[in-house]
Amino acid sequence: MTGWELGLPAGPLERALSRHESPAFAAAMQELRDEAAAALASPLRPVARNGGYYHSYFCPVDAAELIFEEDKPTQHACPVCGRVWSGPPFDDSWLWTANRRMAQRAYRLALLWRLEGNRAHLDAARRILTEYAAIYPDVHSPRNDPSVGKITYSALDESVWAIPIAWACHWIWPGVVHDRDLLRTRLLEPAAAHIESQRTPRIHNYENWLNAALATLGTALGDEALVRTVIDDTYGLTDQLARGVLDDGHWYEGASSYHYYTLGAVLYLAQAREGLPGDPVGNPTMRRMFEAPLRIAYPDDYVPAINDCWYHSRVTDEVGHGIPNGPGFYEIAAGTYGAPEFEAVLTRAYRSMPRSNVESLLYGPDEVSNEAAPPLVESNESASGFAVLRPQLPLGSQGELLLKYGPHGGGHGHADKLALSIYGGGRRWGADLGTPGYGIAINDSWYRHTLSHSTVLLEGEEQPPATGEALRYRPVGGNDFGIADAQVHWEQGPYAAAYARRVVLTRDGYFIVLTRVEAPVARRAHVVFHHEGEFAAWPDGDAGAADLPDNVSYAHLSDARGWPAEQGAAVRLDVPVDAESSVTLTAAFAPLSGARLLTARSPGNPASDLRCTLVSEVTGEAFWSAAVFVYGEDTEVVWQPPATDLPPGLVIRRGSAEERWAFTRDADAQFTYPVNG
After folding, report:
1. Model pTM?
2. Which letter, b or e, does each residue of 192-205 get, where b requires 16 or more Cβ atoms within 10 Å of its Cβ?
């Protein structure tokens, strides 16, 4: 069997061999050499036990990922509070990163050996791979859960680990003639058999990774029957793209991190099948998956942390774990499709970092363009339910408002229909917080709970899953004002037969939010807004007790106060723009019978970064809540007497300028938006 070859495509290595001495790829080559040096000096070795759950490697207090140190498998420090955690689950979770790091280093060591011929790199890659082969068949998960890993916690993790392992074997194959039987029979074949045995029939990011690993291992081992199964059968690649990617190009789970995570699996499958039957590069859905996140990204390239999305995900930096970084994704996109919007991501990224990722060497374009990026678009992603408006917030600075109204997103969805995310001044002022690790209590009690989002709650309870619909959308650009108008019906618990509608109207420098709530019986409703900054001026009147609902989510609010708001209420916030400057935000709430305005501080991400929280509280069966957010000094908001069953009109004064709004066709105002008909 020693003469037998692995069957992965030769194209990536051929491109790297043609480029590795080019100045355009010098940084990528140096990164490979640095990774190789780190691998040679590393104390990491394969361990014959099942690794732990990645999402438990987070500080239970601050929700921050712990610091991984290669030589400290039993000491795990929090980067925020400094506490060092030990024992379960942290020691086992440490193995998640250890195994991933060794697999990636074997991949890079093997590639560098093929490019430069240093025997030390071949020996180091061989050692990692043969040590895994020595233990792999005999390691078993202690859990009886469905779809488990052997070396890793889950079959998904096993797939993420197995793909670079297969490529590393492929590249060192010419130099390990005497180890080929070992690597094939005790590593590659058992890995393929185990992962195939753990498949779960569903449309999900998880299953895409199993498909990608099996396509990679199957191609390497010459098992075309296995490859055809994971591409063509039900729940294979073709089916996943057809049913899992929505018409607007977003992955159905509605989280940008999981969108890229799924796309990463699709790309690894494509790399294994380059030039072979089943290569998905020609499938237009794959290209649309590259395009979709760019339409909703904030002006600084962070992606909105909707649903279970990592808050730090950024198109020009890291977008998830176990996958390429953002520039790595768009190296592949630019090298494959050559589109200016993909190259523009690289142009922006490489202004602040070198072009050092391995994807540039293997799959990227020969050169990166210096052309200006296409302008940011305003878009209603109607299948996913993301309405994006881009006013200036404050004046002269790019802003973004995103209204979320679409499908729930399955197990990774958050119960936050009609949530509003706010970006301005170069910062995520009131953005969705996404999620920290799933293995800590605050993830469920705060980050996934409705209260952590700028939306509506009834009786202090979490919203049930639902799908809303858009009523009207109009961009800011080219119009007097932008519009995002959507509604949702619920059918469970205190939300049974309840209805909510949210209208976001914006001009440069400010926006108005109208929120309609209807229920069959009177409900205590909270219309919630979160915003970065510090309270600078309180509402008129005397503060009283907030009288918050008694549950674990409201327990995360601190310094909570209740203010009279029947005649309207306004607060001012001092909002940071950068390290040295800030802007004043006036948040004014319309008069509303029986209303109070609650003010509080609440966890950001990390939890120690506190935000300002504003809650319009009213008990009733049907009402309109109205609020306006105006950025800048010398501003004033004056509410008009409301007509029956309509939001009150208002006057917004900024310096000597005055703009009048009304919400009926018959009013005499500069800007009107009829909410009835």
Report:
1. 0.95
2. bebbbebbeeebbb
Q: Beta 433-435 vs 305-310: how paired, if at all?
A: parallel
DSSP 272-324: HTTTSTT-GGG-HHHHHHHHHHHHH--TTSBPPEEEEEETT-BTTS--SSSS-
Name, in order, each residue with C-beta under 8 angstroms of 580's C-beta and a sequence gap of 6 or more.
none
Answer whether 183's CB lies under 8 Å from 129's CB: yes
> To 5 degrees, how large is the angle CA 497–CA 502–CA 503?
145
Token pair recorded at residue 219: 């191609």
Q: Which of 216, 215, 100 is nearest to 169 (CA)?
A: 216
How far are the Cα atoms of 292, 299, 629, 655 from residue 303, in angstroms, in the given order?
11, 9, 23, 34
Residue 132 confidence (pLDDT) above 70: yes
What is the pLDDT confidence band of residue 1, given thresholds at 50, 70 and 90?
very low
Name the nearest CA neighbour of 585 among 522, 631, 644, 538.
631
Mean pLDDT check: name the lowest of 446-450, 567-571, 661-665: 661-665
Structural domains of the chain ordered from first start: 1-50+98-195 (1.50.10.100), 199-377 (1.50.10.100), 379-672 (2.70.98.70)
List Cα–Cα distances, 178 to 118, 181, 304, 429, in angstroms: 19, 7, 50, 59
Contact 149, 50 (CB under 8 A): yes
Output the average pLDDT for the chain: 96
Instruction: Measure the CA–CA gap between 127 and 22, rounded to whole angstroms.
Output: 30
The sign of the dihedral angle between the CA atoms of 359, 361, 363, 366 is: positive
Q: H or E element: which one contains 191?
A: helix 189-197
Cα distance between residue 44 and residue 138, in whole Å: 20
Over the stretch 376-431, which tens digit does the pLDDT of each residue have? 999 999 999 999 999 999 999 999 999 999 999 999 999 999 999 999 999 999 99
